[in-house]
Amino acid sequence: MRFVINGADAFDVPETCLRKRASSLLTAVTACSSGDVRQLDPSAARLAGWGPGLGEAIERFFEDPDDFSLPPNVELAAFGGVADWLRLELDLGALAALAKRTSRNRRDFAWALRAKTFLRRREALGRGLSCMRQLMWSEPNSMYAFVFLRFTDDLYSVNEKSGSPFLAVGGGDREKFGSCEDNALWADDGSCRDACDSILARWGLGTTWERPHLELRGEAPHTVFGDRWVLKVTVPQPAAPEVTTPVCQKRSV
User: Fold this and answer.
1) Which of 33, 81, 111, 153 could form a disulfide with 149 if both were Cys (CB 3.0 to 4.6 A apart)?
2) Which residues, at least 6 apart from 170, have a Cβ–Cβ distance to it below 8 Å?
3) C-alpha to C-alpha distance for 75 and 83, rounded to whole angstroms
4) pLDDT tens per residue across span 1-46
5) Domain that holds residue 41
6) pTM greater than the 0.85 cutoff
């Protein structure tokens, strides 16, 4: 099965391999149309970071998901973003194993360091999601505003001066929820924010990212300001049921 983006060949995957990944976007696209060629959304591909070498990486993945390595000049972060878009369901362990195989074949220390940074942020993302889930479960609401602070910031000062009831991500049980610093680092990474959006969308939630200028700590004239990421999460409400007026039928006497 041939897949194209903007009319140009992207990659080719045998249908037998596609059937083994029933939940992937490629399987869904294949089922919705006929023929030997499928068009992928170019805007979605651009947002996912589609670039040179990633088509070959996708083909290698489908050929042997458990023992493939990335082609030259393909970053682990770039492949991770495309894998999220295509719903290939690669967990942190699978990405770490891929990084190890690729690093062993490539012997590029700088690449290995970049891959390790990506993996660390993905791990922190998982802990941050656990923290947000716990906070939402503890305080049921229709909307939440999560703020990603650094270790020197003061949540009380932020909430008092901004007038917004922010919930801080991280802290407390660091093994379970990560530190505020680790969560702030993954929030700074665009690919991690996209991955977070995808996961929360699967939970049925809406997301919006903002970066306001906040008063972080201190009193005048020594007040410290800074820009921090804020994630607004909304819980969609069910659609109101349609009310139909029953038609009254005349009865014969």
Assistant:
1) 153
2) 127, 128, 131, 148, 177, 178, 179, 180, 181, 182, 183, 184
3) 12
4) 889 988 888 899 988 888 888 788 888 777 777 778 888 999 988 8
5) 2-107
6) no
